[in-house]
């Protein structure tokens, strides 16, 4: 009986008050933090995927550009032979061949500029990816309480 009465009196009115307990507040804050971390990770993944798709497109364009440059090179070699008289020029006169050769050189220069632009875009994507990884690493380091960090951790955080 004594134990039964102690048990029944041990539940106080405070348990039924609408005040949230400290642990409830902590749990809510933890849930909110986890939700923000999850959303941040999703955004980072989306950005990574965008960069990946863009990098793949740049790589495809570079491959197509390389094929086009090879074709122009082959045509240019043929045209130079014709200009030197080493190959049969057929009905083409020298002015027409020179005109074609200059157009070929202009096209080749245009392709080289485009290739330079694509390489710059690829380098930019690599730098963005590197920056994203550094930001993620810094977030992870900063999430750790400063009291738990040693000198090496603090130096690494500063370096990042």
Task: Please sum up the structure shown.
This protein is mainly alpha-helical.
Note the main sheet.
none
Number of H- or I-type helical stretches: 4
Net shape: rod-shaped
Which structural class fits the helix and strand makeup? mainly alpha
Mean pLDDT rating:
84
SSE arrangement:
Layout: H1 2-10, H2 22-84, H3 94-143, H4 151-159
Structure description:
There is one protein chain. With 160 residues, this protein is mainly alpha-helical. The chain has one domain. It is 82% helix and 0% strand. It has helices spanning 2-10, 22-84, 94-143, 151-159. Helix 2 runs antiparallel to helix 3. It is rod-shaped, with a radius of gyration of 34 Å. The model is unreliable at 1-15 (pLDDT under 50).
Notable traits:
160 residues; mainly alpha; MICLK protein; bMERB_dom; F-actin_Monoox_Mical
